[in-house]
Specification:
Length: about 150
C-alpha cells in the first residue's frame, strides 16, 4: 500500500438536516450563542461560526432544511430525518473553557432545559449535555485544567 500523503488536522463543518429548521436556528443562535455567518432571513441553510478553524477555514455548524438538495450531491427528502436513538448522529460536542461550564449549567437551568453532567476521568473532560429542538444530544465539553492523567 502506498503512503496516504495527507493528515486531517481539524473538523471543518458539522451539518445537520433539520426537522424544525426555525427552532434549530433559534436554539443554536440564542441558547448556545453561536454567531451566524450571514443573514439568516428565510435562508434554507444557516451557517454558524464555531471557531477560527484551520488554514483559514472557519469551523462551522450548518443547519439544513431537510427538503433541499445541497453540496456534495446530498439529496433532499420529503420526510423529516430521525433523531434520538434511531439517528446515525450520536451527539455533537462543542468545546468551551472549564471556567465557563458553570455559567452554561446555570443558563440551561434558567431556561428550563433538561441537563445532564458527566465526567470522563480517563481524559479529564466534563460534558454538560442537553437536547436541541430536534432531539439531538448537544454536549458542551471542557478539559479540567488540573487533570494530570
Amino acid at each position: 500500500m502506498t503512503e496516504r500523503g495527507f493528515t486531517i488536522r481539524a473538523l471543518g463543518e458539522i451539518a445537520i438536516r433539520c426537522i424544525d429548521h426555525s427552532a434549530m436556528v433559534a436554539f443554536y443562535r440564542d441558547v448556545i450563542g453561536l454567531e451566524p455567518m450571514r443573514d439568516l432571513q428565510d435562508a434554507p441553510i444557516a451557517f454558524f461560526r464555531i471557531a477560527d478553524g484551520f488554514e483559514g477555514h472557519t469551523a462551522v455548524l450548518a443547519l439544513f432544511r431537510h427538503d433541499i438538495e445541497s453540496a456534495g450531491q446530498t439529496r433532499a427528502c420529503d420526510q423529516p430525518p430521525e433523531t434520538g436513538p434511531r439517528s446515525s448522529l450520536h451527539h455533537i460536542a462543542l468545546s468551551l473553557p472549564w471556567a465557563e461550564q458553570d455559567a452554561a449549567i446555570g443558563w440551561y437551568r434558567e431556561l428550563g432545559l433538561e441537563t445532564r453532567i458527566e465526567t470522563f476521568d480517563w481524559v479529564g473532560w466534563r460534558g454538560v449535555f442537553t437536547f436541541d429542538p430536534d432531539g439531538n444530544t448537544v454536549e458542551l465539553v471542557a478539559k479540567d485544567p488540573n487533570w494530570t492523567g
